[in-house]
Structures are given as structure tokens and as C-alpha cells.
Amino acid sequence: xxxxxxxxxxxxxxxxxxxxxxxxxxxxxxxxxxxxxxxxxxxxxxxxxxxxxxxxxxxxxxxxxxxxxxxxxxxxxxxxxxxxxxxxxxxxxxxxxxxxxxxxxxxxxxxxxxxxxxxxxxxxxxxxxxxxxxxxxxxxxxxxxxxxxxxxxxxxxxxxxxxxxxxxxxxxxxxxxxxxxxxxxxxxxxxxxxxxxxxxxxxxxxxxxxxxxxxxxxxxxxxxxxxxxxxxxxxxxxxxxxxxxxxxxxxxxxxxxxxxxxxxxxxxxxxxxxxxxxxxxxxxxxxxxxxxxxxxxxxxxxxxxxxxxx
Length: 310
Known about the structure:
Oligomer: single chain
Structural class: alpha/beta
Largest sheet: 7 strands, mixed
């Protein structure tokens, strides 16, 4: 821990190019360029920014039966999801290298073998190298119909020149043991891409900052019903015009809001993370230090890798 370090970070709250991989890549690159122009050293995008979080669509989910309509919707989503080894990710990597900043990017990921999709968080260093990825451990509700589960092998964190970076996706952040797995890695900059735009989400982010004594960056999409392709408008007829109002935020280890929350618009939240605050916050509480009580509690995570140095 470097006590006098200042790190400038940005959180992207934006409308994705829903169900359009090519436009999604262009959109990500444009926000990376904006973040670099504003002096950010780290940029976080929302959950499944590529190709979108398909809020409001039910994929005709009926227990014991599938429909042609659901398979066609799935095909559309699958076709516009992204492989980590693809040309799309290469273009993003080049843009990151040019911009010289670290990036956390939420995607729906597909594999070259098999047809399952995963809700993933990709971690890039400032040279555009993919440091690693985290796949959501437990998709929530109907998300389980479109996303597969992960395991402890992608509970990753990275020891970088900016600090120790890691995080969880959306409602994984409600899993106490998943949070503890990240705290045990010594995470200092905690990334929390999400699709939750309820005001109560702010309380959870503030709690994690205080509990983990870490900086918390939470990024959400801003999405209106009219942003969806025309072919999905009938499926969304009962949805409100603003389907995701955002609520992106940056919080200090003392629970203080440094930027945001941002509601009902796109924008780039920027804050300077003062690592002296991080150090001082450990005086009276340290979840993996003097408050951990290892003489009382045992904690183990199956398959979690050691922190990776970059």
C-alpha cells in the first residue's frame, strides 16, 4: 500500500448499443477515448455493456417448454455477444493501449466451443493486455436462463501499479462469502458493475466500502425503452420508458460519496482516490487484519487463484 498515492478513476454510465456487437465496440472505444482525455487512469463499464443487459425481455421462459420465439431471441443475443479471443476484443485492446489506462469491461461472453453465455468482467491493463476475467458466480432470477454459472477459479484480483483491483458483478455483491473472498485478496479498488438501479443499491455499495475498507466503483447503464431495436418494442409494451435510471457511484473507504450517484442520464463520473484515506481507514476496522479473528473463523475458497501481479 502506497499511502500518498492519488489515482484518478472514471465510471461510465451510458446507453449500450443494444443487440449490436459492432456498434457496441465502437461505443466502448469512444468512452475509452473520453476517459483518457479526462485524465482517467482506470475506467469501469457497466454489467454486460456488450451487447446489453436484456432487461424486460422474458425469452418466453416457460417451465418444461421452449418456443421458436425464445430461440430466435436467444440467437440474436448470442450472435451479438463476444468471445474474448475475437477481433472485437482486439480492437478494444488497441484502443486501451493507445489511451494508456486500465479498464474493467462488463460483457456477455461466449466461448468458441459450446453455446453457453457468461456474464463476465474483463480486466485490461494500460497496455491493452487482458489481465484476466471474472465470470458471475450466480446469475439472478431469470438471468439463469440466459447465463451459465461460474466457480471460484474466476474470483480474480490484480496487484497493479494503481493498486490492488478486483470486484464482483451485481447481486454477487449480496453474497457475504464472495465479498470475503475478494477482501482476503487485499482489494483496494473494488469494481461493482451492475444492472441494479434501485436507490437501495447505494446503501449496499456504501456498506461494501466500509466493510472492505476499499474504494468502490459501481457502474450501471442508462436505458430507455426506445433504445431497444424495433423488433422488441411489442415485448416491452408494459415497461416504463426509463428502464434503467443508472445510479452509478464512487465511494471512499470511509463510506463517503466521491462522485454521483448519477440518475436518468449518461455521463462519466470522475474521482481522485487518495490512498492515504485508505490507510487511515484501517485504524479502527480491518476486515482481514485485526478484525478478522482467525482464531475463531476459518475461511476457504475452492479454486480461487492467488492475486496476479501486473
